[in-house]
Amino acid sequence: MNVLEVRDLATHFFTRDGVVRAVDGVSFDLAAGETLGIVGESGCGKSVTALSILRLIAPEAGRIVGGSVRFGGRELTALSNEEIRGIRGHEISMIFQEPMTSLNPVMTIGTQIAENVAQHWRVSWRAALDRAQEMLDFVGIADSRRRLGEYPHQLSGGMRQRVMIAIALSCNPKVLIADEPTTALDVTIQAQILDLMLGLKEKFGTAIVMITHDLGVVAETTQRVAVMYAGRKVEEASVERLFARPMHPYTRGLMRAIPHLDADAEIAGRRPRLHEITGIVPSLTRPIPGCAFAPRCAFAVERCRAERPVLEAWESGHTAACWEVARVLAAA
Amino acid sequence: MSAVIEDVTASRPSSLEALGHALRRNPTIFIGATLLALLVIMAAVAPWITADPFRLSPINRLRPPSERWWFGTDQFGRDVFARTIHGARVSLVIGLSVAFISSVLGLAIGLVCGYFRAVDAVVMRVMDGLMAIPSILLAIALITLTRPGLGIVIVAIVIPELPRIARVVRSVVLSIRSQPFIESAVSGGTGDGMLLVRHILPNTLAPLIVQSTYVCASAMLIEAGLSFLGAGVPPEIPSWGNIIAQGRTFFQIAPWSILIPGAFLALTVLAVNMLGDGLRDRLDPRLARRM
Question: What pTM was estimated for this model as a whole?
Answer without folding.
Answer: 0.79
